[in-house]
Amino acid sequence: MAARRYAPPVSVTARTTPSDIRQDGPSGLAITWGDGHRSVFAVRDLRLACGCAVCVDEWTGDDRLDPTSVPEDVAPRSIQPVGRYAIQIDWSDGHTSGVYPFERLRSLDPTAR
User: Fold this and answer.
1) Per-residue pLDDT reduced to its tens digit, 26-42
2) Is 102 exposed, middle or buried (0-12, 13-18, 19+ CB in 10 A)?
3) Cβ neighbours of residue 103 under 8 Å, at least 6 residues apart?
4) pTM of this prediction?
C-alpha cells in the first residue's frame, strides 16, 4: 500500500496567531497578533476581500463579487473561530460562507512586516 500524503499543518506562529480580535469603532476590526503587532481593518474592505467560492471563481481566481452590491455600512454580525487557523464572519448583508485564514488576514495588513 502506498504511503498517503497529507497537506502539511497550517503554520502556527506568533506572527499569524491572534491574541485578541475586537470591534474597533463602528467600521473597524482590530486584531492584535501574538508578536504584538496590531492590525486594524475597515470591515467593508474585509467583506470585499472574501475569498470564498461565491466571491472568487475557484478555477480562474477572477472576482465574482460586484463591489457595488456590498453596502457601505456592511458589518460583522458575528465572528466564529474555524479551528486554530481562521475566522468565519457572518456579515450583515447575509453573506456567511467566507473563511478568513489568519495568514491571509495578516497579509492584508499593509503595515505588517
Assistant:
1) 899 999 999 999 999 99
2) buried
3) 10, 11, 16, 85
4) 0.84
What's the domain range around 60? 14-108
Contacts of 51 (CB under 8 A, 6+ apart): 98, 99, 100, 104
Place of cell 455600512: 73
Task: Measure CA 85 to chain center.
Answer: 10
In a domain, 6, yes or no: no
Distance CA 40, CA 56 (A): 24
Residue type, 76: P
Q: How many folded domains does the chain comprise?
A: 1
Angstrom distances, CA of residue 25 to CA of 9, 21, 22, 40, 48: 34, 13, 9, 10, 19
The x, y and z cell numbers of residue 84, run together, are 486554530
C-alpha–C-alpha distance, residues 33 and 14, integer Å: 7
Asked, for residue 8, whether it belongs to a domain, the answer is no
3-state secondary structure at position 21: strand
C-alpha distances (whole Å) from 49 to each of 5, 14, 25 are: 31, 23, 20
